[in-house]
Write a structure and sequence with these properties.
By secondary structure, this protein is an alpha+beta fold. It has helices at 19-39, 89-97, and strands spanning 2-10, 42-47, 55-60, 63-68, 76-85, 106-111. The chain has two helices and six strands. Strand 3 and strand 4 (63-68) form a beta hairpin.
Length: 124
């Protein structure tokens, strides 16, 4: 089953990290990706730019509004994700426990719903 591993962290949660600590965090992500690739579960991963760089689009009736900034002002922002093709939820959870951001925020594991006719590269 395809799982989205969603990484959330409070604004500024890692701002205090030294350059060496930031490098260590990136190295941990690289190691996780290599591990998932070796196991054949890795589908993809990405980091999002900071929330203030986003643009939100809404439709209410016939009116479309485009606004600078995130959909909602929150204390914790969605910063990136992994897509993994795991046999079980437990396997996805074991991977998620190793994500360094679990120390600073929340890592959410969510099954991905897809339709066979539009799944593209995710079709199994």
């Amino acid at each position: 089953m395809l799982y989205a591993i969603l990484i959330h962290q409070p604004l500024g949660a890692v701002d205090h990290l030294t350059p060496e600590e930031q490098d260590s965090m990136l190295a941990q992500h690289r190691a996780l990706q290599q591990d998932a690739q070796a196991k054949g579960t890795f589908v993809g991963a990405t980091q999002l730019m900071e929330a203030h760089t986003s643009t939100s689009v809404r439709r209410r009736g016939d009116k479309i509004s485009i606004e600078e900034g995130p959909f909602a002002e929150t204390k914790e922002m969605f910063i990136g994700l992994y897509l993994l093709n795991c046999e079980t939820l437990e396997e996805a959870l074991e991977f998620s426990k190793k994500i360094p951001h679990v120390e600073y925020g929340t890592v959410e594991v969510r099954p991905v719903a897809y339709h066979e006719d539009t799944a593209g590269p995710f079709a199994q």
